[in-house]
From TrEMBL:
The keyword Hydrolase applies. Gene3D superfamilies: Bit1. PANTHER family: PEPTIDYL-TRNA HYDROLASE PTRHD1-RELATED. The lineage of its organism: Eukaryota, Metazoa, Chordata, Craniata, Vertebrata. One of its GO terms (molecular function) is peptidyl-tRNA hydrolase activity. It is an enzyme of class 3 (hydrolase). Keywords: Hydrolase. It catalyses: an N-acyl-L-alpha-aminoacyl-tRNA + H2O = an N-acyl-L-amino acid + a tRNA + H(+). Pfam families: PTH2. This is peptidyl-tRNA hydrolase.
Length: 126
């Protein structure tokens, strides 16, 4: 089976959206923020492990595709989580404990074209 190209219809992608203010305004170490993204991505895969798209994504282990986007602050991240929930898009909002701080969210792997319209206002994480 040939791997699907990045722009091909049906390309499975896992989107991760990370708060940029954690690094730029709140001075979190970059490693700590990357760890939050890893937690969210792993949790989303775990929660939706039985999903056919998740299984297909995992079967293509050497060609998995993730996109990491930046949300400017907690409000933007929370609004996105609400939008995704209303649209029926499976995701995991990662809340760092014991601080109880929402830091990022990860969508379950899904076809890029089905969720990209909901994520258009978020740019690549820098």
């Amino acid at each position: 089976m040939a791997a699907t190209g990045a722009g091909s219809p049906g390309r499975l992608v896992q989107y991760v959206v990370v708060r940029t203010d954690l690094v730029h305004q709140l001075s979190w170490p970059l490693g700590a923020v990357i760890t939050q993204a890893c937690h969210a991505a792993t949790a989303a895969i775990h929660l939706h492990y039985g999903d056919p798209e998740t299984q297909q994504y995992l079967e293509e282990l050497d060609s998995m595709h993730k996109v990491v986007l930046g949300a400017p602050d907690e409000a933007a991240l929370s609004n996105l989580a609400e939008t995704l929930t209303k649209a029926g898009v499976a995701h995991k909002l990662w809340i760092e404990q014991p601080e109880n701080v929402p830091t990022c969210l990860a969508l379950k792997p899904c076809a890029k074209e089905t969720v990209q319209p909901l994520l258009r206002k978020f740019k690549l994480f820098k």
